[in-house]
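Q: Structure tokens for this one, please.
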Amino acid sequence: MHINFIDYEKASDSVDWRTLWKLFRQYEVAEKIVNIIQNSYDGLQCKVGHGGGLTDAIQVRTGVRQDCLLSPFLFLLVVDWIMKTARSEEKHRIQRTAQNQLDDLDFADDLALLSHTHEQMQIKTASVAIISAPVGFSIHNGPSKSKRRTAIQPLLMAKLWKM
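A: Here is the predicted structure, written as tokens:
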């Protein structure tokens, strides 16, 4: 089994708002809810502390707000769309149970792509990178790591499947 741990560069700061609003509509979120969230982001500005003072206001156009209860949901909506869009063909998935197959494991902005071969993993990783770009995400080459496991302990697999 091949596992590729994906790390996005500044992921929560990179979410493209225009794409986010489109995803809300694609997931059939009520227009009223979309408008409320969109209005809370439109016109957002910030100032940067530099040299003991503050810069002029800068228009913010990307990212989800830190310390906002809604931000994790907004971020996960984007990650969910990336993974659904980049999902590989059935033959590249890992068999989880007789009925279920597994492509990836996700937790917040940490993704672990799963595959049987190195070649399949390269295809998956390239697909995720291509799909991630329009939403503002880029894969960080430094912390992203690949691992190959020839055998996984049954107890570990049982824990993973219960997640």
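A few notes: The helical segments are 11-14, 17-26, 31-41, 71-86, 118-132, 154-162. The CA atoms of residues 49 and 55 lie 6 Å apart.
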